[in-house]
Amino acid sequence: MIGGLFIYNHKGEVLISRVYRDDIGRNAVDAFRVNVIHARQQVRSPVTNIARTSFFHVKRSNIWLAAVTKQNVNAAMVFEFLYKMCDVMASYFGKISEENIKNNFVLIYELLDEILDFGYPQNSETGSLKTFITQQGIKGQHQTKEEQSQITSQVTGQIGWRREGIKYRRNELFLDVLESVNLLMSPQGQVLSAHVSGRVVMKSYLSGMPECKFGMNDKIIIDKAGKGGVTNEAGKSDLGGGGSTSGKQSIAIDDCTFNQCVRLSKFDSERSISFIPPDGEYELMRYRTTKDIILPFRVIPLVREVGRTKLEVKVVIKSNFKPSLLAQKIEVRIPTPLNTSGVQVICMKGKAKYKASENAIVWKIKRMAGMKESQISAEIELLPTNDKKKWARPPISMNFEVPFAPSGLKVRYLKVFESKLNYSDHDVIKWVRYIGRSGIYETRC
Amino acid sequence: KVLLKYFTPLPTCTVGEIFELKAELNSDKKEKKKEAVKKVIASMTVGKDVSALFPDVVNCMQTDNLELKKLVYLYLMNYAKSQPDMAIMAVNTFVKDCEDANPLIRALAVRTMGCIRVDKITEYLCEPLRKCLKDEDPYVRKTAAVCVAKLHDINAQLVEDQGFLDTLKDLISDSNPMVVANAVAALSEIAESHPNSNLLDLNPQSINKLLTALNECTEWGQIFILDCLANYTPRDDRESQSICERVTPRLSHANSAVVLSAVKVLMKFMEMLPKDLDYYSTLLKKLAPPLVTLLSAEPELQYVALRNINLIVQKRPEILKHEMKVFFVKYNDPIYVKLEKLDIMIRLASQANIAQVLAELKEYATEVDVDFVRKAVRAIGRCAIKVEQSAERCVSTLLDLIQTKVNYVVQEAIVVIKDIFRKYPNKYESVIATLCENLDSLDEPEARAAMIWIVGEYAERIDNADELLESFLEGFHDESTQVQLQLLTAIVKLFLKKPTETQELVQQVLSLATQDSDNPDLRDRGYIYWRLLSTDPVAAKEVVLAEKPLISEETDLIEPTLLEELICHIGTLASVYHKPPSAFVEGSRGVMHKRLPAQSTESPDVGTAAGGSAPEAAPSIIPSQGDLLGDLLNLDMAPPTTSGPPPPTTGMQMGGMDLLGGGLDSLVGISHSVDPYAATPGQPVNPFWVKWSLQTRRSDGVLSLQVWLPAMKAKGLEISGTFARRAGVIQMELILTNKAMSVMTDFAIQFNRNSFGLAPAGPLQVLTPLGPNQTIEVSLPLSTVGPVMKMDPLNNLQVAVKNNIDVFYFSCQYPISMLFVEDGKMERQVFLATWKDIPNDNESQFQIKDCHLNSDAASSKLQGSNIFTIAKRTVEGQDMLYMSIKLSNGIWVLAELRVQAGNPNYTISLKCRAPEVSQCVFQCYEAVLKN
Q1: ipTM score here?
Q2: For residue A50, which residues of chain B lie inside 8 Å, CB to CB?
Q3: Which residues are involved in binding a 1,2-diacyl-sn-glycero-3-phospho-(1D-myo-inositol-3,4,5-trisphosphate) (chain A) (predicted)?
Q4: Which residue of A195, B174, B548, B808 is surrounded by the most CB atoms within 10 Å?
Q5: Shortest distance, CA A427 to any CA of chain B (angstroms)
Q6: Which chain B residue lies closest to A133 (C-alpha atoms)?
């Protein structure tokens, strides 16, 4: 298991050092600094073995977190834990920065004592941690016996992510379907690979211990329902109607993963998504689709080398969605060779600039409606070089945001049942929003 | 912002500071006290020594302030070990806190107490721990469960004596899922240090309990439980299927570690399912999507996932064969992800997708990162060799790349084209002309050697082959060995093909190789060619120009037994390093070799015969396999393996692990294929092996000092040594003497596989450089969990020692009594049964002459070497002693020693299931009794 956990600043000075196992000594702290943080080469692996000691590290801004062990630990678990540790810290004091860590070092030690015991991760849900790890210090004395046992049963309990007795005057929930669409396209316009990775993020402000059921236009469910003649649920979609209605009826989901609140065995057997949600904001599920993806933009590049000192670049972008919808924050990044001496750009829409420090022409458009087209052309002057190596021509990448889900996913319903309290599914105010963003959206040129 | 001041950079605490802190710690004001403790903790974090404040900090412990208490505990955990006597001061508070009304305080106390590694404290810990294990509050119980593992780490015997293991086992049936999960984690860890204890006692009932808890506990608990389940071997395919069915829902968990651990269980249990079962193919289909999903995790997890997928596609290529596209490299992937993706792409390449793969690889070959580009070029070559239909396109792609004139691309391309020539002879030689154009730009030995090979192999088609080779000859002595050897062979080939024009050239190279070179390999090869050519040119032609075997398709597959073991370790570090845990874990932990279960046969009686427990885990008092050799070599464990050549560009730094790398690999290779000692015992075939007879022995069974490696054979390093067993640990005592003129540093040691799996338990501790005429004594603890191979003689040990000068090999023999373990006393009944059970053919009799001890003295003397007398019987004035010995690999040797009063000659009968050891055991008897 994890033998120790260290946090360093960018210079390699230790900010936090907590050792859980006897086989990890103080010299491990220095070994990591010398061999990884101060190494001349860039990091070639997130797992490093130095003198029979293994170091797992992640970096958040310029802070290094390293877990150390001498055993054959579950490597995936160690990284999951490090991410979780970052989440927990962030939810306590915001951004993970040197200053924040120094200001909260007592808190961090307290957290590390609680969520890792002898190197074994324990309950790490911020919801329940915040009930008893506070910076008030003296809290233990003011708690009643009931309060104490409530805390311990929640920390160890089956529903460790939610405490009892939550009350809201107005029961309300927000669903965000956030998708990132990824594309790799050949210069000829052939899709080399494309997938959508999506997340359903929920903000729930619900009283009591509500039982929720979530439904979407999952092909398997719809087909099953169609066969069985069960149509009642589809008719009652009170949340649907987000974007276009012309989209396809159902989508094929390649795979999905769920927050630990979702009953996985139920999903496995019936493919229904039921759960008792954590309070506040959390990620309900992640999913991935590869079939019938709506690619919001198409990039058509044309690069011509005119002699040895000049390049002509022409890039056309086409928006491919309903004309009534607007894409935002559009940015096209056209890489330029290292020996570029000057660039002249003409674009039809938006603003384009050559950024020498980034070796790219950056073309920004604030808004663009669907089924439109725009173009940029640039002349790039090159310095003559002796370098035999040809320019690698990195791909043209794009950023954007669109108000629909490129995968075609639709939320069909989210039902809330709370039998003990007197509010029903109809009393809950529900909101749904779809946002499609570019992930790695690249066209080779 | 106030706290920033605690971190003011100061090298050490000055006396003044300590004094000031002392005063603050003893202040009456609570706030001031707390602030002072915080300052102390901050100093501790940055590595300053604040242990001098121990009593003052401990005084702050008795407080109602929970935050202050936690800080003091943190301090205690750090410094208790260095101040054990003062740590006792804290005990009372702990014991009191364990009785506190607040469960959080009770848990905090028991958690912290377990972290204080002071022997005296552990005694006080037992009672509170016992109470906490049965506490009414689950939070306290789950903390106490982990505390048992902590205590076991400090004092294993205490945990067993106090019966904590049973209590821990009971917790597996606890009503609270988190308690169950922690109990499982603790038991699994304890079980690892007792490989045969059957501690976990996994049976269908307990498995059912675990599977129920799996649905309810935290994500971390699920990982503990799944990792534990993976150690279970189901009794038949039906049980296997039902467990798989209950584990598959975990594949949709958001936590990647839960997913990978579930994959591990499924990959393992799937082995037992019949392939024609519908469920088998359903399961295969279910595995692909979650594996692909892992690739959308954060890059570090992607890396772990990719290393595992690399194993999975080797074991079961069908799972991901349609998923090639997801492994395409993204421009912004970190380099470690890119390199791993590339590896998997080649593994998945097939006729169906080769066009796409090639297009991608060509794209990658123009990237920036040199390692990545090289690997991409190599990958193109591997595609050509793997998919015959694509060879032509691959070759033309490589030619395109050569045209780019990027130096390292050209060199890499030439290396792979050489392999393509070997795979498809007489097909692509038209490209040779293009290759020859780039001769001047090659500066890496591998590329130069490849090019020279090509020129020599196709000398008859290259008009100016002699000129080309001659140009290399000018700087012959500056070339690396690889190039020199290749050049020698190529010129000889050329001569055999075009004898008339090249006589002068061949003479030149032969004299360069034989007369002017220090390298024995090069000289040997030169002489062989020379004699061949001068005695029988026809034979020379047959030898040198013989038809070469084709090279195989997959060159870097992991060896099957290692692959099986790694599959059992999916998700763990072993699967990331692609090395068995024994390669990087010290001591006994995690070195048990795991293996996949075999597919179950019709009769599921194997499991039931062993009392319902898993066959692997069944406790065996006496090895019961019929195969004696198997017993001897401990083959019931998966055979240990040396991993294949480590991928050079995986970017892992396995610092110090492969110290002797190539040297010992080739050494293992020799004994593997030829095993000279088996053929002619005592007659070393390989002249580099030096053998020394061992004659002098001492009373305690320790061989007196032997010179193992004389200085003249090891460039001035003399090694002598001996073996000893102390407190259950086998020690190799080495005396290193530097008889050379220069300083020696960087010592390291490795053993070849041997009969009893002896291996260094740690590195060779030579910390200071060894100056000329200096001597150093080193004691090297040995473990018996290394790779096993039968040696002849049985107790032969082949050792490689490295220093900054070279690698040296020697072999020595250890007295087998080193391996007699302390718990070798057999129960009387078992002894009787075993004696009868072992066939009489296995009995061997020996005479020990001139021994003047009486039977009791002999018995006590033998006991000192872990030879235990179980019973004594006197028949007609003759004492019969019955004795048992247990070897470190679990083999029992039973002995009957007959001593007649007044007769100095003893008779000894030895019975063992592995009769090979009898001779060695007899020698030990003789040695012990006579001294």
Answers
A1: 0.82
A2: 653, 655
A3: 351, 353, 355, 364, 366
A4: A195
A5: 30
A6: B67
